[in-house]
Amino acid sequence: MHDPVDARLVAEVSRDARATLAQLAAHVGLSTSAVQARLRRLEASGVITGYMALVSPEAVGRPLSAFIEITPLDPAQIDDVPQLLEHLAAVEACHSIAGDASYMLFVRVGTPPDLETLIRDIRKAVNVTTRTTVVLQTFYENRPLVPREQP
Amino acid sequence: MHDPVDARLVAEVSRDARATLAQLAAHVGLSTSAVQARLRRLEASGVITGYMALVSPEAVGRPLSAFIEITPLDPAQIDDVPQLLEHLAAVEACHSIAGDASYMLFVRVGTPPDLETLIRDIRKAVNVTTRTTVVLQTFYENRPLVPREQP
DNA sequence: CCTGAAAACGATTAGAA
DNA sequence: TTCTAATCGTTTTCAGG
Fold it and tell me: Considering only CA atoms, which of A20, A25, A28 is closest in space to residue A4?
């Protein structure tokens, strides 16, 4: 991304991934073909890595979310944790972290018993201690990475 | 969302928000107009809440992410925290949590000094103690909420 | 709730600057 | 990189089952 027009394009498409080239073009003051060329470059260069629909977790039966810090008990497994947990669909994110624990997971499930089952599944997949922090309420998430500048 | 076709649609559009109605129609075996009507219903009923481009944090100059747990020192401020922090663009997510702290933030900044500045800005905005956990590596995040069933 | 067809609109490409 | 203009594909709307 190397000019303010690219920045605005990224901000716009980040806010509405289904915006038409004509709409984007109107925002940045270029023709649709110029916008298309820029979008393609942003995709090819890895600035834009994809487009996703935002889905209401409640609507798809997963209203309960939590952070799970995990620490492998067997040091030999430590590097494999992300891969060993990838098959668990409830695990939405996996980061390695600095601090007491080795990894931080963000998970979404339907009910408290589902959370218990998930924690057991994690322990089945890899030998770890876990520390779970339940989310009571999400005020915002997925906020745009590139804030829209005031026009 | 109340049938398997809706579920597949949500899964598909969640994987590629810019898929055309024709592509989606091919996946679910309906006409484009039927798919369009279903998408509209899913949007209107709040199952699909929006469409966003995924942007590489590194590419937009924010390679450093962290979790910040915060606990208000002044109980009177406790409910206002999400709103008081909303103006900080680095704060990507804000959840209230069960546990020692009151809130969990997920933040993205450019550099360690930026993180220090952010923490000071948070303290300026609201009277809190903070506990920061730096992310060393993100293995995955934003995984699809509705896993694609095996076809 | 679906299909299918017609019309409107957007995306894509080529050629020129 | 950009624009314009022609072509092609997609979305939208509507009649009918």
Answer: A28
Q: Which residue has the tokens 């702290």?
A: B101
Residues with CB under 7 A from strand D: A 5, 29-34, 37-38, 41; B 20-23, 32-33, 36
Asked if B97's CB is within 8 angstroms of A134's CB, the reply is: yes
Question: Which nucleotide minimizes the distance between its C1' and the CA of B37?
Answer: C1
Digit-coded pLDDT (tens) for A93-129: 999 999 999 999 999 999 999 999 999 999 999 999 9
Does this model's pTM top 0.90? My answer is yes
Q: Is it the case that residue A148 has pLDDT exceeding 80?
A: no
Which one, of A1, A86, A97, A84, lies nearest residue A49 by Cα?
A1
Q: Minimal Cα–Cα distance from B138 to chain A, Å? A: 4
CATH topology of domain B4-44: Arc Repressor Mutant, subunit A (1.10.10)
Q: Do B94 and A49 touch (CB under 8 A)?
A: no
CATH topology of domain A64-134: Alpha-Beta Plaits (3.30.70)
Q: Where are the domains of chain A?
A: 4-44, 64-134
Q: Which of A84, A57, A50, A58 is nearest to A70 (CA)?
A: A84
**Given the structure tokens 């069933």, which residue do they identify?**
B149
**Separation of alpha carbons B147 and B39, rounded Å:** 18
User: pLDDT, tens digit, for every residue of B119-146?
Assistant: 999 999 999 999 999 999 999 999 999 7
Same fold, B4-44 and B64-134: no
